[in-house]
Amino acid sequence: LGNIRDIGSGNIGATNVLRTGHKKAALFTLIMDITKGFAVAYLAKEFLGITASHFAALGVFFGHLFSIFLFFKGGKGVATFIGIQMVLNFYVGIFVCITWIAIAIISRYSSLSSIISSVLSLLILIVANDLSYIWVQIILVFSIITSHKGNIVKLISGKENKIKFI
């Protein structure tokens, strides 16, 4: 089908793969990106401890954003972020997923869903009084917002592409 980096936004993430019209490929990309974040954070937590999982989470996340295999370009990190959340706080991970889906269904903007659900994850941690990894969360959320800066400009100007689920 060609190089995904030459299609749509040029991003390697599930949303851009979905824009190609290949829903199975998009689902596979989504699952693999979530699994990547989950596996790295989980294995670090199990074998090296919770602090190691925090640093591993940052490593896998930034490895996704700035892949050495793609000359330091990559995805926007949202699916990897979800996988990480499933390890660090499962309920936050579920919250992010549900929030992302709800906003995406209502607005049809993947970027808006990603930004809002990640920012709300910070509020959930504060409300739940789980500040054990808030420093990691702040870095991840700030990076998600930063990776969407072009999308934010397009959202404001009304030029952002909507996603199609069906």
Overview of the structural elements:
The longest helix has 26 residues, at 23-48. The relative contact order is 0.12. It contains 8 helices and no strands. The model has no long low-confidence stretch (mean pLDDT 92). With 166 residues, it is mainly α. It has helices at 14-19, 23-48, 50-65, 78-88, 90-107, 110-127, 134-147, 149-157. Helix 3 runs antiparallel to helix 4, helix 4 (78-88) runs antiparallel to helix 5 and helix 6 (110-127) packs antiparallel against helix 7.
H/E element order: HHHHHHHH
Largest sheet: none
- Helical percent range? over 70%
* Low confidence ranges: none
Quick structural summary:
The protein has 166 residues and is an all-alpha fold. It has helices at residues 14-19, 23-48, 50-65, 78-88, 90-107, 110-127, 134-147, 149-157.
Which descriptors would you attach to this protein?
single chain, 8 helices
